[in-house]
Amino acid sequence: MYQPILKNKLNELKGLNNVSLNKGLNPIIELVDLNKKNTVENVIKYLMEKISNISENKHIYIDTPTYLYNELYDYFGLEDIETKHKFFLEIKKIFDKEIDFTPVISFDYAYESEKKSYKENIKFFKKMLNDFDNLAIRIFANETFSSSDELLISQIYDFLGDELENKYITLIIEVSKKNKSKVLSLLKEITEEYTINQITLVGEAFNNDSRHSTAEVYDRIKNHHLLNFLEIQKSLNSEFVYADYTLADKIPSKIEIDPLKGFLYYPFIKFTTEDGNMCYFSAESKGRYEQYKSLCTSIIEKINNYSIEHCSTCKFIKDVSSGTIDKFRAGSTWKYRMIAHHISTMADYFK
User: Fold this and answer.
1) How far is CA 160 from CA 106, 126, 133, 163, 164, in A?
2) What letter would DSSP give residue 128?
3) How wide is the angle at C-alpha 202 spanned by C-alphas 198 and 207, nearest 5°?
4) pTM of the model
5) Which of 100, 342, 105, 134 lies closest to 242 in space, CA to CA?
6) In degrees, to the nearest 5, what angle opens at C-alpha 60 toward C-alphas 57 and 62?
């Protein structure tokens, strides 16, 4: 099973919704954007509308992450545990029987003391246990692994062990090159001491590197998160679930646009290959977006197993290359289409 992580932003949701229904995946959706809505009901109905195709027969994980600035979290005052609890109950009510979902609990440490933080987080977790049979706990990776999250998990299992017996608990852990050894140690301890139904390992599949060449670029880029995932799984002789941020940034970068010159970029396409790695195709000139057509031709020529049968994006690439489609010059089009291709490819990898 594969778990793509997507923010509730238009292009990421469009990418998810363009994936074939027969792909095995349980998306994790991070609610960070209001999408010009001012009520919980409207935010969730907007989400349902944008994932109407893919949500059929899929189990969706919903998170309100605290690792980045979260417009939605601040607007609805989700730092208050009562408000946050009501927020998830409202999602449950709106989804009703249409979408099967699991709330993801990202611990919040924005309290006046560490003791208060532990107390409030455990109180919130207990409230959620009363209303949901499936819950996920998310641990984020910083430069040093979050010892607070580790301690909270042990306290939750110590204090609420009996109440967890008939629940389905997923642990979502961030993995990076810096914290890989610490994650290994933590997983050994957790799997020995606690009953956890599913462990998902999250990471960034590809880091965005700056462009150094002025000629057309064709680069092979390793999926280092996949390598970390496979290494951890082999070391512990266990089955975990793979999750990544698709081709989007974990923390979106702010783009400064010159008011006089506008924003010009090198047309590029990130094409995930069947081995979970990526081919990066970049054009030679800034601002000439008709070059997407030649990039599509390069993909068809250089990707050995390229097939229009793979997904809707591969069919789109063929149509652009052959000149049967005219509307292909917008970067946003390629963002959501290549996200859809990445999700399809990784779902096939882990089927």
Assistant:
1) 18, 8, 14, 5, 6
2) H
3) 165
4) 0.93
5) 342
6) 160
CB 14 within 8 A of CB 49: no
Domain boundaries, the chain: 211-219+248-351
Which single residue is written with the structure tokens 């390229």?
A: 306
The Cα 245–Cα 4 span in angstroms is 6
Task: From first to last of the 351 residues of the chain, give the pLDDT tens digit.
Answer: 899 999 999 999 999 999 998 888 999 999 999 999 999 999 999 999 999 988 877 899 999 998 888 999 999 999 999 999 999 999 999 998 889 999 999 988 777 777 888 888 899 999 999 999 999 999 876 544 456 787 888 888 888 888 898 999 999 999 988 889 989 998 998 888 898 999 999 999 987 554 445 456 678 899 999 999 999 999 999 999 999 999 988 887 665 555 555 567 789 999 999 999 999 999 988 888 999 999 999 999 999 999 999 999 999 999 999 999 999 999 999 999 999 999 999 999 998
- Give 23-60 as a DSSP string: S-B--EEE----TT--SHHHHHHHHHHHTTTTTTT-EE
Question: Which of 98, 108, 172, 95 has the alpha carbon at shortest distance from 141?
Answer: 172
Decide: 244 and 195 in contact? Cβ < 8 Å: no
Q: Look up residue 294 and give its two tokens.
A: 């030649």
207: three-class secondary structure by DSSP: coil
Helix (H) or strand (E) holding 272: strand 268-272
- The CA-to-CA distance between both ends of the chain, in Å, stands at 6
Task: Name the DSSP class of 290.
Answer: G
> Could you tell me what percentage of the chain is helix, strand and coil, using 3-state DSSP and rounding each to the nearest 5?
40, 20, 40
Nearest to 199 by CA among 239, 167, 250: 239
